Amino acid sequence: MAAFVPGARQNPGALIFAGERGGPLRPNHFRRRTWAKAVKASVGLPCHPHDLRHSHASILIKLGVHPKTIQVRLGHTSIRTTMDIYGHLYEGVDEAAAHALDALFRRALETVKSRPEEPLTDS
User: Fold this and answer.
1) pLDDT at position 59, please?
2) CA 20 to 30 Å from 107, out of 3, 27, 48, 121?
3) 81: Cβ–Cβ under 8 A, 6 or more apart, which residues?
């Protein structure tokens, strides 16, 4: 983040989002002055800053990012938390797993069929 936050290299405690005077943002001021206007002009109300977190996770799931990576990015202490919240978005993964196994078995069967038969011998 240091490349994007002015003065962050000199001041590791620099704020990523600062108020008009450089101090911490006041949540109510930010919501009223900036957030509500931007949301109303784009996606429409109601939309809360925390909704961005859910959008972020949902997009990562749709892109096929591994659940463990999503857990770490969201700061969940357990993969269970991530799956309890977002598991319903993994639609079709069981069917995809079944198709993948079916394809693997078909390739293995074709490999076996393409080999010349070897005579059975008693040892």
Assistant:
1) 93
2) 121
3) 71
